[in-house]
Amino acid sequence: MLPIARRNKIKEIITEKKSVIVSELAKSFKVTEETIRKDLQQLEEEGFLTRTYGGAYISDGVENDVDINLREHIQVEGKQRIAEMCLNYINNGDSIFLDASTTSLYIASILKEKRLTVTTNSIKIMNLLADNPNIKLIIIGGRIEHPSMSALGRNAEWNMNNYFFDAAFISCRAISMTHGITDSNEQQAEIRKIAIEHSNHTYLVADYTKFDRTAFTKICDFSSIDTLIVDKPLPTEWHGFLKNYDTNLVECE
Prior knowledge:
This protein is of the alpha/beta class.
């Protein structure tokens, strides 16, 4: 296959799937990973996609659900700042919910000194906390979705309904003044809805790239969010908007 034909095919794949993995493309096209990296570099220079460690992604589309192995390497510094801020709201003895977002994964990674009950539907968080003697770990069971490495579906939702939390830390795909808090995955959104309904205090954790956008399915309105933690200062209009909903805004910078 000629390079231009391969790059056009990569465009088709990423337009449909929203993200691609270098190793998977190399196997599919029977070329080296270095060849695929050069293809992705050229497509990035053309403004078609954004490269990250191990692959590439595009931000277009309301059903954009980027593979978690790529999301772990997107907006890393912002997610780390948010995670560190979240520690101020987690007390020993708390029962908390961490969703299957990469921001929650960063929160989990710095819980070593906390004595908590942690409930999650994330396989990555489960693996991270399983050996921590300070953590009582509750795993939500269900069908495992590989792009997010999380338990979803009817069984997961039924399981979630049995638990209640002092605090829930949830993320989303997009945040809009007009359409509220939305997600690209309907089943993931349902897990987050239940967590919000079953929590004494809900923290929405989101980096600045998610604002003024809309995804496929609604999670909730701002009235359901007690505190919004964001990595960078938001425009002035967001301050007034959130005040109208009594949502506490915490900016990490």
